[in-house]
Amino acid sequence: MNKRQTRLFAIVSTGIAVVVFLGMTIDSHRQFPKLTNAQNITPAVRMGQDVWHKYNCINCHTLFGEGAYYAPDLTKITQLRGEQYIKAYMRDPSQFYDEQRHRRLMPKQDLSDDEIINLYAFLDWVSKVDNQGWPPRPILVTGASITGTDLSAQQQGQGATQAPPGATPVEQGDNPIAIGERVFRTAVPACASCHSVAPGVNMAGPSLAGIAARAEKIIASPEYTGKAKDVASYIKESIVEPSAYRVPGAMYSANGVSFMPNTYGKDLSPEQVDQLAAYLASLK
User: Fold this and answer.
1) pTM recorded for the entire structure
2) β-strand pairing of 253-254 with 257-258
3) pLDDT of residue 149
4) Are 170 and 180 within 8 A, CB to CB?
């Protein structure tokens, strides 16, 4: 290849690269409104973004893989924790861990009620952005295992699971316990993101190991405020009406409202609730 051919090759290659780059840039901007749910950017979302910057949350947390890695990635946090839990955590994070045991973690920022509402709105909008699986390995809250691919499977109610510690081995297929385990992993938010099935391992919610045995004692207790008469109905009540009876503990409820999302009764079919209850009752 002589000098003239080399120069021509370089010019053509550069031109092609520029055209491809411009085409991809234009196509990306064309898709941004749809991918980011731009129509849902409300004034509360914009003010919540201001709160995010005001308190320098990015100094410890990441969004879409950008930020510091001292604390969990919050890209999908509202799909992993209920609204009541997140707002209570913002109000006083010290209620959710033992400083003597865990050292200093999330500082109390003294956010106002309006700032908390707006910051939640911003994080909820962020969680619904189609980030196409990025980052591939986000730092997540304890017990979570959600990625872009996992989220897609959750939204479709699909995906096989592995039996967790403490679960009764079951066959896949039409077995309601096996299907219930799948619901446990794929519901949105995923039950597994807040609850462990290992004895004594409490996360955002109490461990569900041995819930059937505990349910019998709770129903017989004078402190029980729900309507369930047996174990099965208690577990189903806990799923669809989490505030009917609140497990004692500052990190599980506030102002008479359970931190557990109250949307499962709407998002899950009665059959799925029955299957999930069957799985939970099988945990030892």
Assistant:
1) 0.65
2) antiparallel
3) 36
4) no
